[in-house]
Design brief:
Layout (H helix, E strand, L loop, with lengths): L2 H15 L5 H13 L6 H13 L4 H14 L13
Helix pairs in contact: 2-3, 2-4
Pfam families: CMD (PF02627)
Organism: Bradyrhizobium japonicum
InterPro entries: AhpD-like, CMD-like
Length: about 80
């Protein structure tokens, strides 16, 4: 494996290997990223729903993340004036 490939492999597996964040949290972020309307990846969303359940999340935690992904990433949330003076 060349140095570029090794660097890419380290970068893509880092969240799971470094254990900086709990695995449950990383998997919940994976759900949100895959379920966001800008991505809409059903296969990735399903995979990331199974993984946090195996890591100890509750059904309510998964549903909350799915709700957040659908509401916060949707077109209705594109008001860029929020928080501006």
């Amino acid at each position: 494996m060349g140095p570029w490939t090794a660097a890419c492999m380290k970068m893509t597996t880092n969240p799971w290997a470094e254990e900086v964040l709990p695995r449950k949290f990383i998997e919940l972020v994976g759900i949100a990223l895959n379920a966001a309307c800008t991505n809409l990846n059903p296969e990735g969303t399903r995979r990331h729903i199974r993984a946090p359940l195996e890591a100890g999340t509750t059904r309510d935690e998964v549903l909350t993340v799915l709700k957040m992904a659908s509401v916060m990433s949707g077109p209705a949330n594109k008001d860029t004036s929020v928080g501006r003076k």
